[in-house]
Amino acid sequence: MVGEGILKGMAETARNFFGSYVSKDRLTTVQYPEQRDAQIEAARSFPFLVYDGADWHDGMRCVACQICEKECPPKCIFIEKSKDKKPDANGKPQFYPATFNIDISVCMSCQICVEVCPFDAIMMDVDTDLSTDDRFGGLLLDKQRLSKSNEYYNAIHPTEAAAVDARLAVERARQEAKAKAAAEAKAAADAKLTAATPAQPASGEPR
Amino acid sequence: MSTAIVPTAHFDLEPMSEPGKEQLLELAMGPQHPSTHGVFRMNVVLYGEQVVRLKPVFGYLHRNHEKIAESETYLGSMPYTDRLDYMCSITNNWAYALAVEKLAGIEVPERAEYLRVITGELTRLQNHACLIGFLMQDMGSSGTPLMYAFREREKILDLFESLTGARMMCNYMRFGGCRADLPAGWLDQARKVVADFPRFLDEYEQLLVSNEILMDRTQEVGVLSRELAVSAGISGPMARASGVDYDIRKVDHYSIYDRFTFRVPLGSHGDVYDRFMVRLLEMRESVSILEQAMRDIPAGPIVDPRMKVRGFRPKPGEAYGRIESPKGELGFYLVSDGSPNPYRYRVRPPSLINLTVLEDLCVGRNVGDIVAILGSIDIVLGEVDR
């Protein structure tokens, strides 16, 4: 019968229409921005810089190695290395970025900077409410605007951040053990030296 | 069916004509025409309502992809491949990763192969569902089938987001594996989506397959003969709708596709309706592949442990990697000179090659059919123009 197919289709449409009143599965619309879906943990928008502790400048993990600047496919990162050094989280003196700019109008959220960073200093944010009427300055983020605390990172990507923190703790423990061993060895050598010193001058050997 | 009454060759347009003399009309469809799936122009020469000649004009979305890739590192081109066919970024990643793996001789771990198949087939599901929706939209169905397709696609994009971090620009594959392992609960969620998908397909078929208006507008329209499909290098669902049994998953046995049992649906008429049906049937086969892959997925590493993120320099040589992307044969041809960036980087986009027969399909048909024919070819301008 001609028209049977159309009627079948209309029955399907009707089923979807009336079904949308009872079944969540058939009406999936979310009234954004009043309603929002739950944030998906793995989501990414733009990169940010992680800092430990309370102060963004003192705790910044970035050591201005410029690897992300080189590897960034659209070249949206600009870094200037500092002339002086500041202590990092482990107390070791390190360079820091004098300038660290990301132009998020160029960034394509590919996450390659995060993958290549050896210091876990740059991570992906989930914030998407970034629209601004300042097309150039508003989208060129400097290091202060890019800096976000490790607590914030733990809040947005809990699983990933836990793994990063564990890795950093291991690294810190290893460095501390190394420093301790070095200090002990130095102390032992000093003690040996001081013990040996009184006997030495008589022999007159150069040390 | 009607045939062209005006010869297509050696027919000059007359700017002015004498009163009472018939004349041809040159019409520019696009680049802002809503049915052109992006910025694509067709210069159509019409005799009355009949198409006499059709000249596709593209390049509005040209972004210099191949040349940029020659100055990027191998990994640096990976996010750019997402933007070729932006509907299915994962299969683009896969084809590129396959080419680089061939070039450098990298092995892919078992689990990563399964992840690739799962994400790749999910991509095929959402691409075909949307394409059919777009095709119906182009033919004036006021969006109902498209919205139903988008509703299903949303579930798949949610899966992509929780796995790869992005809904469309996934940037998921890496040389020698995949970037991220499955998060907790992902597989259960994916099983649910895949288990629900046949119900959607049933509804979709109820809605469309026997619709008389659809049949009137698509059957015997835009017939692509088997001979032309083969000689023009048409691939993917478009070739299969013309009865060419050519599916690279079956021909090349790339990745682990020889482990799954699935059928390759073939059309017999090569018209728009067959191209639509082949895609519907292909989705059912993809569901079956997904079920098998999600049943068998083993534990293990997801990336070749010898691969480092930085400092990748393959030995001098060349390689061509190709996969069956949802649109057809997607290939990447790479030439390495031993430096960190490719010496030559070439994409074989299925959309562009499939688009080459557009004039042959349209000549002799009415203007309204162009829209249906173009929709059934399944082009994405990001890939055509690159």
Question: What this model shows, in words?
Answer:
The complex is a heterodimer of chains A (207) and B (386). Chain A is an alpha+beta fold and 207 residues long. Chain A has a domain at 47-149: 2-Layer Sandwich (Alpha-Beta Plaits). Chain A has 7 helices and 8 strands; from the N terminus they run αβαββββαββαβααα. In chain A, strands 6-1-8 form a 3-stranded mixed β-sheet. In chain A, strands 2-5-7 form a 3-stranded antiparallel β-sheet. In chain A, a hairpin with a 5-residue loop joins strand 3 and strand 4 (93-94). The longest helix of chain A is centred in the C-terminal third of the chain and has 39 residues, at 158-196. The radius of gyration of chain A is 29 Å and the shape is elongated. With 386 residues, chain B is an alpha+beta fold. Chain B is built from 15 helices and 8 strands. Chain B has helices spanning 65-71, 78-82, 89-104, 110-138, 144-164, 186-208, 212-218, 226-231, 237-241, 248-251, 272-296, 350-355, 358-362, 367-377, 381-385, and strands at residues 25-29, 41-47, 50-57, 173-174, 177-178, 317-325, 328-336, 344-348. In chain B, the strands form 3 sheets. Chain B has a 3-stranded antiparallel β-sheet. Chain B has a 3-stranded antiparallel β-sheet with strand order 6-7-8. In chain B, strands 4-5 form a two-stranded antiparallel sheet. In chain B, a hairpin with a 2-residue loop joins strand 6 and strand 7. In chain B, helix 6 (186-208) packs antiparallel against helix 11. Chain B is globular. Chain B starts with 24 loop residues before the first strand and ends with a helix. The relative contact order of chain B is 0.19. The chains are: A alpha+beta (207), B alpha+beta (386). At the A-B interface, helix 1 and helix 3 of A face helix 2, helix 5, helix 6 and helix 7 of B.
